[in-house]
Amino acid sequence: MSLRQYLSRRLNSLDDANQRILRDMTVIMAFVLVGKGVAAAKEAVIAWRYGVSEAIDAYLFVFNLIGLPISIWYSILSAVYIPLSERIRASDKNSLPIFRSELLGISIILGVIIGIISCILLMGLFHSSLSGLPDHTVVLALDATPWLAMVIPLAVVTHYGSVMTMAEGRHRNTLFEGIPALGLMGAVLIASSGGIYPLIWGSLAGAALHMIILLVALARERGRSFDLPRFSLRSPAWPLLWAGIGVMLLAQTLQSITAVVDQFFAAHLASGSIATLTYSNRVLSLLLTLSATAIARALLPVFSGLATNHADALRHRARRWAWSMLAVGFVIVAATWPCARFIISILFERGAFSSADGDNVTAVFRLGLLQIPFYLAGIVTAQALFTAGRYKIITIACALNLLIKLCMSFALVPIFGLQGLMYGTAIMYAAYAATLMAALSRPSPGRAAISPPDTGVAEDSEK
Fold first, then answer.
1. What is the Cα–Cα distance from 417 to 414, expressed in whole angstroms?
2. What is the 3-state secondary structure (H, E, C) of 191-204?
């Protein structure tokens, strides 16, 4: 039997749900490849123009912190809204457009408030000595902060549109995620010189264009039924959303803080360490996002359909996919490790980015690969637990993540420098995946843990 025949036979033996997951993964991976191709080109342009410099350190420090509330919002909304929308459709689908309109209104208000608060907090951070940045880098960061804070309201509304698209089983939002990188790359290429302002204007232009294109696509698809913002909380679905948001907010905040730990430790190392770490993480994100985005977005709708009445099937399917993704992760590590220096050279080594910079980034990047198998397995189990409404175990695992990350960073960074951060990340994700797998193996304590309590959506439909 040929390999083609074997694969065809295996695919045909899969049930409808697994075939849907594989089909959606293929589409999403294709879209992610396009988006990440643009992102890789952007990183190459930035490396050519800026290399490892104070301007890029300042920009990345501010932009990564600005991204913290954005990523929290996106993670919470996608994890809570998508399973909830399935529940609402099953009970009273006519109430869903009103809920979406009110959610858009809340997103606009929330984005503006978070943007203002983030700007104030960051300005306070840079006026203190807590950032650990050199004086000149702090001056650049202070210049960038008010402008980059404007990205937050744009991104919050954009992520609303992305979640709405995913909830309807479509994936064009994944293709659009390359637009911010395109805007930033264009600004850096057009600028006559370096400095931090081309990075600022490119980030703003890319975020605005991303939001506009995504909302226009949604409007064209829905036509007259497109959701205009409503600034009220009258939908009976809000209590269902609040039931999941509280614990998820804590979980995602802990997870996002964990991601920022590396940046603060790198800021206390030699000048250029933040840039070295970020270049490494950018290449890692090409691998992680390609696989993790496809996994999460393909699995979540299928898991959501199983969560309410098929808890055993959900656990069984999630365990099988988790072990499969763990194996895939080890294959990615084995295939990428020997090519790491070549990849860094092709992407970055030109202009202001020297061969010595390439050696430093490669050393960090190789050790960063160790997190991939555990990260992918954790993504699968987290999606299953999200859809089952088991938010508390996610929160406990995220708190454990932060504790492990801090302990490993304090212990390993003095010995290994930036490479110690990568060792700590791999250990952290291994513990995360093991914790979630253990939780998934145990049945949910009851129906209330599988879905938020009924607060009136079904009764409204009967009236």
1. 6
2. CCCCCCHHHHHHHH
Q: What is the CA radius of gyration of the chain?
A: 22
DSSP-assigned letter for residue 95: G
| Identity of the residue numbered 1 | M
**Can you tell me the distance from the alpha carbon of 365 to that of 370, in angstroms, rounded to the nearest whole number?**
9
**Structural element, H or E, at residue 369:** none
Query: Who contacts 23 (Cβ-Cβ below 8 Å, separation ≥6)?
Result: none
Structure tokens at 54: 């104070």
Of 415, 335, 417, 326, nearest to 373 by C-alpha is 326
pTM tops 0.85: no
CB 288 within 8 A of CB 375: yes
Rounded distance between C-alpha atoms, residue 252 and residue 68, angstroms: 10
Count Cβ atoms within 10 A of the Cβ of residue 336 and give its class: 0-12 exposed, 13-18 middle, 19 or more buried: middle
Q: How far is CA 230 from CA 61, 104, 110, 114, 227, in A?
A: 35, 7, 13, 19, 9
| Residues in the chain, pLDDT under 70 | 1-25, 29, 93, 169, 171, 222-226, 244, 294, 296-302, 304-311, 443-463
Q: How many C-beta atoms lie closer than 10 Å to residue 193's C-beta?
A: 7
The CB density around residue 259, as the number of other CB atoms within 10 Å, is 17
**Greatest pairwise CA separation for the chain in angstroms:** 71
